[in-house]
Amino acid sequence: xxxxxxxxxxxxxxxxxxxxxxxxxxxxxxxxxxxxxxxxxxxxxxxxxxxxxxxxxxxxxxxxxxxxxxxxxxxxxxxxxxxxxxxxxxxxxxxxxxxxxxxxxxxxxxxxxxxxxxxxxxxxxxxxxxxxxxxxxxxxxxxxxxxxxxxxxxxxxxxxxxxxxxxxxxxxxxxxxxxxxxxxxxxxxxxxxxxxxxxxxxxxxxxxxxxxxxxxxxxxxxxxxxxxxxxxxxxxxxxxxxxxxxxxxxxxxxxxxxxxxxxxxxxxxxxxxxxxxxxxxxxxxxxxxxxxxxxxxxxxxxxxxxxxxxxxxxxxxxxxxxxxxxxxxxxxxxxxxxxxx
Length: 341
Prior knowledge:
Blueprint: E1 3-7, E2 15-16, H1 29-41, E3 47-50, E4 53-58, E5 63-69, E6 71-73, E7 76-83, E8 86-92, E9 99-102, E10 112-120, E11 126-139, E12 142-152, H2 155-161, E13 167-169, E14 177-182, E15 187-192, E16 212-216, E17 218-220, E18 223-230, E19 233-239, E20 247-249, H3 254-257, E21 260-270, E22 275-283, E23 286-288, E24 291-293, E25 296-301, E26 316-318, H4 320-323, E27 328-331, E28 336-340
């Protein structure tokens, strides 16, 4: 989903809501070949470093650990990655199921389209669902082959942020991973489990168990879902680090909106410039795990287009402006989320 928001009947700057973040490092082609060659053929090598990237291999349990710096474009996290011979910025997006490529830079790739299949967004905009295949896709210490990717025009995001964006990287690449995001240091720490899957692994940042709380989560349609209760209503929350604001579904019971102080009307703009009116305000008494947030900015709009193929819909979205308040981590093998206090 790609949305911009601006105050109703005003000309304030565009704020992007749903964009997809993809995680990919500054590793040269030669460096990448050396990295994987060394780890494959020289089992005595435990760590190799390149500028901005450190990769550690543990031969005993078939795992790879690495850290990546990220840059910011507004509230979007950009990481370097490489699709075949094209290298650049990808948006890391835990709300995106897989890989999305900006068709502007991959227009010469062979494409296939799914019959009667369309992509939809909050604004109700849809577009043909086109795919392609990337032969070699690399990010951090990882390399993937023959990766299926969706194609989309990300030009509106690029124009809004003033930066070249090659695509979006989603949950498909994180499923065998532990990921910790340190917003203060602009670093992301990854631990990829090998075939032996050391599910008991945890990063040194998790040694002090009093510093964070653990919240279980589910993965539905390759999206992170957390459950909570607000005003007696059970809610399904989508955790999306590429959503620039938090969102509440306008179809929720009125008693929930009694806790929202409305501040202004806004217009959402999606791909194709179709606009939908929404409300912006501050939610009181939001609870996640054992933590209560006394005042949290939210956008109120219809989330009907976020319903899953296997039933059920998203009631709310927790985005960057909440997640970035502290370090946050995910173990996608044990399905645990870590929120630092």
